[in-house]
Structure formats: C-alpha cells, structure tokens
Design a protein that fits this description.
Elements: H1 3-27, H2 34-56, H3 64-92, H4 94-101, H5 104-116, H6 122-139, H7 154-176, H8 182-199, H9 213-239, H10 242-249, H11 252-263, H12 272-292
C-alpha cells in the first residue's frame, strides 16, 4: 500500500471518527460545558498516550525541536484556538462564527504551500474550495439575526489562524520525528496546561468545572474517541502532504450529518441546506482523492 493511499485512508478515518465524536458530545452536552468536556477528555486520554509513548519510545524521539513544535501546537490547539472559537460563538452567535471557522482547510492549505513547499495542483485546490464551501453551508443557519457587534469579527479568524498554525507545526514536528503517538502526547500535555490557564478568561458559562463524577465517565469516553481521531490524523500527516490531509479531514461534517440523521433525530433536524452542503463536501473529497490516487 502506497504512502498516498495510507494518507487518504487515515484522513478519512480521522474525519469519520471525529464525526462520531461530535454526535457523542451532542448527546453528552447536558453533563458539562464544552470546555470542561475538552479538558476532561484530554486528562482521561493522557495516561493511555503517555503509557504508549513510554512503551514505544525510541532514542531518536528525543528531539528538542520536534518536542517544542508539538508543545507549541498543543498550546494553541485546543487551548488558544478553542478559546477563540467559544468567544466567537459567544460574541457573534453560531450562525456567524461557525461558517467563518469553516475557512480552516483553505488557511491550512495556504500555510502548507507557503512554508512546506507543497504543490497540491489545481484539482486539489478546487476540491479544497468545495470542502470549505460545503462546511460553511452545513454549519450556517439563516433566520438567526439577534444583536451582535462587528468589532468581534476578528475572533473567528483568530481561531482559524491558531488551528492552521497548529496543523503546520504538527507536520513540521512529524518531519523530524515521524511518530504518530509522540505528537498527540506532547500536545495533550501542553493543551491541558493551557486550558487550565485560559479557562478563567472565558465567559462564566464556558469555564471548566471538573467536579461532576458523571461527566468524567461520559466525557472521558468521548475524549478517548477524540484521541483516536487525532492519532489517525497524525498518521495521515506522516504519509501525506498537509494540503491533502487537511481538506479530507474537513469532510467530518459529512459523517456528522449522516450520524445526526441516524441517531439525533430528536435533537437535530437535517435541512436541504445541510444536504446540499454535504454534497459539496463529498464532491470536494472525491476530487482530492481521485487526484492523489
């Protein structure tokens, strides 16, 4: 099996796992707020990641530059990027913030071209545009006006910048130490530390609260699933270019839509707009997969 096929397979595995993760989080949202869920998931996953890293450790993994890149990536994702994501939703509302966050695959591809020398080609770029457009269609809703202030429009773009830079640093770290387990371990350590630090700056409703035992059980399981998705993502980056992996990973809304229709009918309504957006995501993913295979 070629590296390209492995990159595509791991990217889609990561996207589908993330889609299932989103459904489980939606079911568990009454247990705790999102920041608490992220932090609990990281804390529960850390022992497994640390044990795996210790068991698989190789002398070549002790690379200070790679460790610094992974730690820096973890410090801004989930920490800084997630903070700006929640602040964007709080200040602008979901209908405005989330579609802007969907520019992530475009920003990530741009960084891959600018700093990693990747040349994805016109077909892959077209597929990336379709994936981003589809994500925006799926996640946006009309008819939710409300009051908002334009001065906060920079926040979702700050989140996109943080996520994109984290993806770039992950790829750079993997180029130095091609281990799909070391990166997530270091990132989780850095991310947990930063979430504790930045949590106090979030609106009170979004601050982490770690006292509920029931939340630890449910959100701990979702955290393990999220860790599996991250491991798939790192494996994809190990075998493929960032400009290929990031757009394919962004097909996660397609899997979320299917799973929501199957398991969240009492909580979510699948609309024609979401279906049309999903079609764009699928078409973009097919274009990228066809081009690289």
């Amino acid at each position: 099996m070629t590296d390209t096929i492995l990159a595509v397979a791991y990217s889609l595995a990561s996207a589908s796992t993330m889609g299932l993760f989103g459904v489980l989080v939606r079911r568990a949202e009454s247990r705790a707020n999102a920041v608490t869920g992220v932090l609990i998931g990281i804390v529960v996953s850390l022992p497994f990641l640390a044990a795996s890293t210790a068991y698989l450790w190789e002398p070549g993994w002790w690379n200070l530059r790679a460790l610094a890149l992974f730690a820096a990536a973890g410090a801004i994702n989930p920490a800084v990027g997630r903070v700006f994501l929640f602040l964007s939703i709080h200040r602008l509302g979901v209908a405005r913030a989330v579609p802007l966050i969907s520019a992530l695959p475009l920003a990530t591809a741009g960084l891959g071209i600018a700093f990693l020398g990747e040349r994805p080609g016109l077909i892959v770029l077209a597929g990336t545009l379709l994936v981003a457009a589809g994500c925006m269609a799926i996640t946006s809703r009309r008819g939710m006006e409300g009051k908002w202030d334009r001065k906060f429009l920079w926040m979702p773009f700050a989140a996109v910048a943080a996520f994109s830079v984290a993806h770039l640093w992950q790829k750079m770290g993997l180029a130095l130490v091609p281990s799909p387990i070391l990166g997530p371990t270091v990132m989780s350590l850095a991310g947990a530390a930063c979430l504790f630090l930045f949590g106090g700056f979030l609106p009170r409703a979004h601050r982490p609260v770690l006292g509920s035992g029931a939340a630890w059980v449910v959100l701990g399981l979702t955290g393990l699933l999220n860790t599996l998705s991250i491991l798939f993502y790192f494996s994809a980056l190990r075998y493929g270019d960032l400009t290929i992996v990031a757009p394919l990973f962004s097909t996660a809304p397609f899997f979320s839509l299917l799973l929501s229709w199957a398991f969240l009918r009492d909580l979510e309504r699948v609309t024609p707009r979401m279906v049309s957006g999903t079609a764009l995501v699928v078409l973009g993913g097919v274009l990228i997969t066809w081009r690289v295979l």
